[in-house]
Amino acid sequence: GEKGKRRKGEKEKRRKGEKGKRGKGEKGKRGKGELKGKQEGRQEGKQEGKQEGEMLALQRLLSKRFGNIPTEITCLISNAPVEAIERWFDLAIDAQQLSDIFKDDL
């Protein structure tokens, strides 16, 4: 019947060296690409997580030291790279006023 035909076709493919449904084919290549993509995704996630953590720490420090943070500065912090946020955090520790921290960036 139908099963016999299917099995015979699969046997012929194997004899000829062709890949059947269960063969690796492109899957092996895609697996490596997927792994690389997952690693890159994890790295981006870690970077975004670090940036968000630094941003929140800076905003908390600024709020504790200077009270309400102007919207302009909040937006600046939200769109800044980690390096800038770290620099502002260090400046915020000793700054006398909020404008001392962001004078070169506004």
Structure notes:
Helices cover 76% and strands 0% of the residues. It has helices spanning 2-16, 27-66, 71-78, 82-94, 98-102. Helix 2 (27-66) runs parallel beside helix 4.
Question: What's the quick description here?
Answer:
The chain is mainly α and 106 residues long. The chain has helices spanning 2-16, 27-66, 71-78, 82-94, 98-102. It contains five helices and no strands.
- Report the average pLDDT across residues: 82
Instruction: Tell me the Rg in angstroms.
Output: 29 Å
Determine the structural class based on helices, strands and strand pairing: mainly alpha
Compute the number of strand runs: 0
The SSE order reads HHHHH
Helix content: over 70%
Gross geometry:
elongated
Secondary structure elements and their pairing?
Elements: H1 2-16, H2 27-66, H3 71-78, H4 82-94, H5 98-102
Helix pairs in contact: 2-4
